[in-house]
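Field: sequence (string)
Field: structure_tokens (string)

Example rows 1 and 2, in order.
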Amino acid sequence: MFPEVTLVTPTREDIQRMAEWLNDPEVSTVWYGVGDDGKPLHTTYIPETLLAGGTAEWDQVFNDENRTVFSVYSGDGEHIGEGQLLVEWPLLEARADLLIGRKDLWHHHYGTSALIGLLDHAFGPLALHRVWVDIPEYNEPGLLMVQHVGFVVEGHLRKTHPKNNEWFDSTVLGLLSEEYPRRRARLMETTII
């Protein structure tokens, strides 16, 4: 069985933890690296700016119909990561982003459980047709995880992710709504040891 996780609306404390996780070079490297200014990159919002802002900034990030941001909680109620769906409604598709910020939980299938939760939301309530991911070449565990869930390689992008002042290629993988139920059922039959 995969570990139990829940996806919930982020709190200010969750965003503070996200900022702390991203300040760990090992964590920021598997997410989006750091910018030219040496600060960790993050998609859709900057945690420190969001925390310093008011209600309007918060609502702009977390009440946007084109973006769904979840905090990932473990079965015992601890905040362990973040998942996002960036939706392109005309195409009925979304890019999924996922980070387990708790390094002690890496390689224990929490990411797989959270990804299944994101896909359940994308293909369930959102009724999307396709979900895709963009995995940098240096994140081999991430690539193996999404392939295990059933994502299919769709293409290769050149020099899309910065790391240590160098640009790295990435792989784009996708999963279609008609493929997901079968792949999800097969995953749920899998025994994790």
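Row 2 begins here:
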Amino acid sequence: MAQSSIEWTELTWNPVTGCTKVSHGCKFCYAEIMSRRLQAMGLEKYKNGFNVTIHPESLDEPYKWNKSKVVFVNSMSDLFHPDVPIGFIQQVFKVMRENPQHVFQVLTKRTDLLLEYDNASLLEWSENIWMGTSVEDERVKNRIDTLRKTKAATKFLSCEPLIGPLPDMNLSGIHWVIVGGESGFNPRPMKPEWVIDIKKQCDIARVPFFFKQWGGRNKKKSGRTLMDKTWNGLPEMPDAYAGV
């Protein structure tokens, strides 16, 4: 568990680390860069670098948090990577269900495998498990339709890094949309008109909209203001969540 600087969450929890690239949004993966840095620092959890590694010892952590938290699950991996055993995914889901006072945000690019497991009744959901997918440009819009077919109570999109326009999205059954530009040493630019169009689509569909950042090499300098406002839309919190 670690406090997070990610604007739309409070903590990160990584029962799995490591991943492999699956689409254009992965090109400058921050988790890959960070994991190698942590490996160089000698952290035991990252001794395998960015190779997919499960961490059963991390499963107890959510039981120890005193207050309700909003938690990004596997910020350093993808829970639905094919190298993660379904038995371990089920253990992660069990931990999340047994801690209804927290909100767990799970984000995947591998919606096909997610839906395969869900259709096989291998996943048991609770209202505090939010399921999301990354949609960085039109080439992966199909992930939205796949996510919509799952039994997750709250479904969200992370359009980050937004590297192309996303016109005419079907937001039916989607409960939250996050948009952000790419950061790092060589970020691909995000055009304002792409962001504004997504905001308009959210307004029409009455979906909460969260603008995370413009990105670039200096996130603080580029800021997160869109049309002279800061947009911090969130889905409805589950009843058991008692955060401020």
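free_text_note (row 2): The beta strands are 2-3, 11-13, 16-17, 53-54, 70-73, 103-108, 129-134, 154-159, 176-180, 209-213.
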